[in-house]
What does this fold into?
Amino acid sequence: MRTLVVISLVVLKFGYSTAQEFKIDVSYKYIYSDQWDKTIQTYNVSRPFIADKQPLLIHGLNSSLSYMFKSAKNLKHGINVSYSYFRSSAENENLENILNLHFLNLGYILHYEKKENLKGVYTDLIVSATSSGLFRNVNGEPFAYDETTSKAFGIGGDICLKIGYCLKLKNKIYLSPFISIAYTPYLYSPLSESVINQTKGLTSKNWTGILTTQIGLTFHIRQLKYDEQNKGIRYQ
It folds into this structure.
């Protein structure tokens, strides 16, 4: 246990010493998937007895962490990990149906910020590998289909463009509101239709494209150093 603590402290110290900036995002996220929308709409049409129709998987939340490497250039690079959650819930008599959709992305980030012009404005380009997990609960219990717990996993790639405006709060802490748009051209998830509608190959393909938009806030923790020429502290 002591060895694990020592190793963890060394890793954190190394990470902090080699990082120029840490960024933490919190945002609202909108998602559009034509294949999943079509399957949910088929679920509603094929069950005319339900009064409360199943909502589309549209609204969700996202959080992410970015680690930027030290560089004196305007164009910097780093790594990014993000998590997103979406929920669709419909409550009818003797039937509460909930869809839970999770995404986990691991990506490479390019950060551009030219301080001479447009001070405070920055853009991020993030290319990620993305994975998804879709689960269904019925009346508070995991739904079983063909005697197997209903779940669908997916894998694909994602590209995201983000624009923000950075405001200094104090010392190393900055805050920036941002908007972003991202596109996943191909997410392979062959069991999604089975989870949503208990069918396979009837209403959708075994893959889907996904378009997302986000609006939120980023908290920046930036390394500072003493500027001998200007006799002051500045961002590296």
User: Anything to note?
Assistant: The longest strand covers residues 75-92. Confidence is low (pLDDT under 50) at residues 3-17, 226-236. Residues 28 and 61 are 5 Å apart (CA to CA). DSSP finds three helices and 14 strands in the chain.
